[in-house]
Structure formats: structure tokens, C-alpha cells
Structure prediction request, 104 residues.
Amino acid sequence: MKSKAIKLIKSKIDNNNNIDLNYVINFAYKNDVGSIIVEGGKNLTQSFISKKLFNKFYLFQSTKKISEKGNINIIKLKKSIEISFKNKKIVNTYLDKDQIYKYY
Prediction:
């Protein structure tokens, strides 16, 4: 990973036994990281949103169901996102009925 300039960091754990996201963001900032891509599941996504750690958010919504396990209540998630962000733009995916929403 060193040859690809990938650096692993050991994160602190918060009171709920989760990665301390503030620690990770501060570490990235102190090390001149300009942007971070987060591809996470239900808990990680909701944590970033509730802590207001995103300045831009892309939500990919598909008509296809992969599995019931870990489904995110999209209505609740969209409300949470729309409260956190002032602007919303639909990005054309050219993929049937799938949608990408850009919040910023």
C-alpha cells in the first residue's frame, strides 16, 4: 500500500465502541488530506450525517433490491440529509430508473 501512497491509521474508539470520526477527520486535516470518499453502510453513513461531517453527499438510489439485511430507511435518511444540506441536484445516471442525488 505504501507504493500507492495509502496510509492506514489506527483510530480511537468512541464511547459507543465505534470509530471516533472526529479523530479521523482531524487526522486527515492535519496531514493535508483534501478530500475523503466514504462508502459505508447504514451506521457509518448515519454517523457522518448526524455529526455533520460531510460538506457534499451523493445518494445513489436504485429500484433494485439486493438484500433486506442492512436496508436504510430511505425516507428517514433523505429527511436527515435535506435538513443538513441546503442544495440538491439530480445527476443523470442514464441507468434505467436509478437516481443519484447530489447534496451540497
The mean pLDDT is 84. The first strand starts at residue 57 and ends at 61. The chain has three helices and three strands.
